[in-house]
Amino acid sequence: MKLAVLEKTATAAAMPVHREAGPEPLVYRERAPHPALADRVVCTWVDPARPRPQPVLPDACIDLVWDGTSVEVAGPDTHAVAIEGKLSYVGVRFRPGAAPAFLGIGCDELVDGRVALSDIWGRFALDLQEELLEQPLQAMAILERVLLDRLGTTPAVDPVVGELVDLLARGAPLSESIKELAVSDRTLRRRCAVAIGYGPKTLERILRFRRALRLLRSHQPLAETARLAGYVDQAHLTNESQRLAGLTPAALAARRTLSISTNGCN
Prior knowledge:
This protein is an alpha+beta fold. It has two domains: 3-151, no CATH class; 159-253, Arc Repressor Mutant, subunit A. 40% of the residues lie in helices and 14% in strands. It has helices at residues 99-103, 118-121, 123-134, 139-151, 159-169, 174-181, 185-195, 200-217, 222-229, 234-245, 249-253; strands spanning 3-4, 29-31, 41-47, 54-57, 63-66, 71-74, 81-83, 89-94, 114-116. The strands form two sheets. It has a six-stranded antiparallel beta sheet.
């Protein structure tokens, strides 16, 4: 469910999750998508119910989410979002920039939002929800099938945005990335907003913060984390963490389980 700090829970889930041998509780799980979708979809995932809401952090992705009643589009987040812990979810996560071709709507209309798929796809989405209600244990396969059916008519990811994502994910400074792309700032902002939901600067911040989170999970000291992730200093990292996660880096590092969900690029 995007990037989440996940706590272990013994709560049973209503959705299909593989249980490991022994008493281990059910937790958020990701699975590789259908091979034909692999260049557009990062993963499918299951997030079971748990006793309390979980914070979900920005990751530059958009998800289709089935909550047992309806299908929603989880738009690109620019700050932490608390997800209701009492529900079980099944989802499909698009690679950065891939969602507009499937949804038929610019991602700039979805920023920090949760939109009913029926508001975008109309009657087709309502029929899809009926099918999911009738076959809840097949939710993941049904969502994938819908995307496979649309695959032949969906254009590729905007190549300029795709290259921008690759450059920033590798840690290239935004100023150097813009020069390498050889497009105007205005053109890049417009194309990035449609494909990702927000401009290049916000994309850079989110991908840099994900690098920092991975370093924190590997128990790097905060000052070293800031340096390696590309921040000016530790204070810069702390300020960004509070803006994007609502928590300090030290508070994130102290979590028992810090799980960084897949976004397909970093």
